[in-house]
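Run folding on both entries below.
>entry_1
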Amino acid sequence: MSLRIPASHILNASAFARAWNAATAELLSRRTGSHWTGELSSSALSTATAIASLRLIDKRLGATDHVARIAAGEAWLARTQLPDGSWGDTAESPGNLSTTLLCWSVLAALAEARGLPSAVVDRAAAWIGTRAGGTDRTTLAAALARIYGRDKTFSVPILVHTALCGRLGDPDDPATWRVIPQLPFELAALPQASFRLVDLQVVSYALPALIAIGQVRHARAPAWPPLRTLRDLAVAPTLRTLRAIQPAGGGYLEATPLTSFVTMSLAGMDLAEHPVAVEGVAFLVASQRADGAWPIDTNLATWCTTLSVGALAAGGRLADHLDRRDRAAVRDWLLGQQWNRVHPYTGAAPGGWAWTDLPGGVPDADDTSGGLLALAALEAAEDRPLPDSIRGAARGAFGWLFDLANRDGGTPTFCRGWGRLPFDTSCPDITAHVLRAAEAWTAIDAVGKSPRATRALTAARRYLAATQRADGAWWPLWFGNQAHPEQANPAYGTAKVVRATLDRRGAEWLLAAQGPDGGIPSSPGIDATIEETAVAVEALAEVAEHAADREFAGRALLAVGRGLEWLIEHTDGGKVFPAAPIGLYFAKLWYDEALYPLAFTVTAFERAARLLGNTASRHSS
């Protein structure tokens, strides 16, 4: 790779070139065939729910089919317990009450069945008692209610798991269950189009949990008539719905916790042999890792692939990294992931992309924007007229995105206007992603220039202006920082919006956030991550190249140089990429993805190299 550095004081040119080459080679090496799969972190929460589900299935069937798998998961949890007795969502996460409750419950049930004491269980109980104020059912229910508030998406499943493991009292005693809020599973019998008009109490993607967990609570502690009669009548049709929306692989959303909650709930009401439970068990068995643990989700293959294509294309030289045959293979794979029918789960129209290539994925706005950006980058590398098939895929995807937009002009994740809970509302980083996709396609095809597109994008910009915080930052939805005072990640959110809009106040926030060492954290006093610094460098490189104010552009350029030096140091010259748990799954479950720091760093390196080359040209003219 050739690199023209405008001034030696911006960064060490030779060190940058070596790191750039090394990181790019590493990213290319992680491609498997026609795409990138990535690797999600193992999860204590997922492992606890999985072994609890398998344990209950075996117990209900009088079987021992899963004893070895349960033992492997139990051993993994014992090895990964933190010194204070708690568990976090990842190995790099601090302990939290939700995950620790889940782990404690199933490990205590297993120890109780053996009739043997367990130091692991005792340490966990002591931590929970200190954190929640006790381990009795009333105290635990109140503690979870304080954490999750109105959103029942995760608090009720945790309590059901805890009850089925015998930690809230005798599971056969209705009093044990009355501390658990009753989810209105009967509402799932209504037409899907009406969901936005009723109070589901869970977010859109948690419909399987609404049905199964609502049903086990009803079976164990039913309400008084006539509500009991109404719910009795709703059991059979909502079970049919549960079966109808189960994907071919058995795993709802490819998510171990969600599938486990559904499976254990069916076992808890003596439906261990129901087809949904049988398929759920098959998914859990297939998802366990060699070390005994489970990840939070099977994979993010589509997301990882679009990130990787975007990274390799960020410098305008995708053809240098992927030859024509490889580009065609990646393009065909991406086109194969686009949904071409109504989704049976959310009712999403054709045209979107999910995060995974597996059947449990659900189309969402972030991955649909990512798919559009990747296709635009792949087409920009070709010397040919745009094929009708690609144009049709893009038009379908943009139509899908524009239909999804909320009344506020912003873009939600899954469903337009489904609910008021956080993961169903508009969010800045996804909205900015839509803007970037439209910008990329404007250079290729008229799809981004239609009157409808113009209206939608104008509304999106208004939404972003309205949601900018007083300090100039934006907070994202699906990414956070565990060390941030409010577990937010303004570095990621602001970088994504600045990358799409070149907003001056947002860019100033990024410049002010940069630490003396060059890293860009999400809050003063906490450590920067590779992921955060890389996305901020990418955004500031865009500002440095395009800002009309030369002084402002110059400050952005210097910040890019300092950020690059930080990335070179913290990746050992582009060779080592430790992942930070900045990813947020539903209900604030943390995860890390091995590909994130690598793909984000390559994006920053490629984008900065283009900037520095252009800057050199201007300086020499």
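>entry_2
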Amino acid sequence: MSAPVKSALSDIGATSCAPEVSVVEISHVSKYFAKVVANKDVSLTVHAGEVVALLGENGAGKSTIMKILYGLYGKDEGTIKICGEERQIKSPADAMRLGIAMIQQHFSLVPTHTATENIILGNVHGYIPLNECNNRIRALAEKYGFDIPVDKKVGELAVGVQQKIEILKALYIDARILIMDEPTAVLTPQESEVLMQFIHDFTNQGNSVVFITHKLKEVMEVADRIVVMRNGVVVDTVRRAETNEQQLARLMIGQEIVPPERDQTLDYENATAVLELNNISLALKGTSACVESVSFTVHEGEIFGIAGVSGNGQDELCDILCGARQPTCGEIRFLGRDITNESIRARIESGIGYVPVDRYRDAMVMDMTLAENMLLKSSFSTHWQNRGFIRQKALNRYTTEKIAEHRVKATGPSDTARSLSGGNQQKIVLAREVDLGKKLLIFNQPTRGLDMGAVDRIHKVILEEKERKKAVLLISTELTELFELCDRIAVMYRGRLMGVFHNGEKTTAEIGLLMAGVSEKQEVKA
């Protein structure tokens, strides 16, 4: 470790709090962004050797209060004490000197640098003995059971390995308080288990972890205490042993969540094949195939799921299906008709609805009104035209109906898309695509980044469309979502399908191994 970091830590004594003193004590902290209240009168404590879960919906203020602790934001009111002493944390450098590190949802790694270079970045000066640093990082990784190729470029490594490098960056500076923001969002189940084991080992040494999440199962697995936030305030603090998932869900959103029921009686032999893919491949210039020999069929009244860690060809497959890219080879059939070379407009007119993964980039125009966004993909339709002019009153009535039907929190059709929360924006996209998709609906991670209330609504809509005998293709990184909704589940790894299985045929662990590229044959050999 570099001398500057080591001396700063020893000076403030952040690594040796008295047992009766809280490691972190946040008292009556508030944060405002113009007229928006991000945090209001937030108080919480973290003790040595403790995992505190910060639980809440998106926009509840969880990440904001931790960014204040880490020095990314300045507080407007309140105090922060570290080991009983009030501290002014004005930057991440101040936080790191106090033994605080934060692993954010989006990694801050330099892809062209090696693992070691990323870990020591900013903590070494002058001549760098790289072999010595490699050995030191290798020893640190082995201490925590991490298998890290220290001399490989980060851009060549899997997402799970990149997260371990982020953790090692914190361990390298002797961080004793580790803030983790949605740390399992991009991990396979096996990688999540490794992370949970690390958290247990880390806190058993007297260190502390603040775990920011909206996933109830993770909270019940790893937390000692749970701080529940809603609308920028702390609504309750409970011990894990004294609560359950149902109570936590009520605290998070203020109402009961009832899991949707799934009809499991689909007759595949007699069901109409709506979407058929035969050996679809896509090879981009100068790269290996990002979609390779993909074949599957989605039937009328079926929800067909595709599991996989992000970046394994799912987005490219969706581009092919909606017509944004032409496959290098293979055939797409829709209701028995070859649509491989048909345009995007032709596919929309055929009855295909598509909810893309990035609504900001691909599904909405943020400065347009909700009515204009509802019109985006059907502006060519004579239904909305009168002698070349938009039938604005009819469009407004239609949008108002959809706002009510999908419980969108908006004042009316003239609201801009930008003025809505992420969950309400997604509901508008969903409302439009469900109407356009008369026969087939394609969902690419439709609940990513949404709170439990919005997720619950979207799940119910998907099941309602299945009841209407539409074919549904659901791509998700959340296995619980796929197990809850799908009739069959395929696993995608590096552009290939690792298999297609009926729901219940494979366990979460078995699906997780396939997501990591471990085939059933390899598993047997192991």
